[in-house]
Amino acid sequence: MNQRRLALSDQQMTRVMDAARHLPPRQRGQFLQAVAEQLRGCDHPGDGDLHRVLRAVSTDMEDERLTWVSP
Questions:
Q1: Where are the domains of the chain?
Q2: Are 32 and 16 in contact (CB under 8 A)?
Q3: From residue 2, how far is each of 37, 41, 47 by CA, in Å?
Q4: Residue 35 pLDDT more than 70?
Q5: Cα dist. 48→1, 12, 15, 39, 60 in Å?
Q6: Residues 15, 50, 13, 37: is their CA dihedral positive or negative?
Q7: Mind listing the pLDDT tens digit for each residue in 40-62?
Q8: Is the pTM of this model over 0.85?
Q9: Can you give the pLDDT at residue 65?
Q10: Helix (H), strand (E), coil (C) string for 49-65
Q11: Within 10 A of 25 (CB to CB), how many other CB atoms are there?
């Protein structure tokens, strides 16, 4: 696992935390970890990179949650 530090602006960090806030508390850590893992693939994550990653991780987690509750 790559442990390289992420450099996000205050505004970007606020966007990440706002996105996590909409999840049940037990899923927030998983969400934040998934976002960090995907952003580590970007040398200098910009706002577009962050938007893409937040959307992808949110969609993946929603799909996973729906799978859990589907018969």
A1: 27-71
A2: yes
A3: 8, 9, 22
A4: yes
A5: 24, 10, 12, 11, 18
A6: positive
A7: 888 889 999 999 999 999 988 87
A8: no
A9: 60
A10: HHHHHHHHHHHHHHHHH
A11: 8
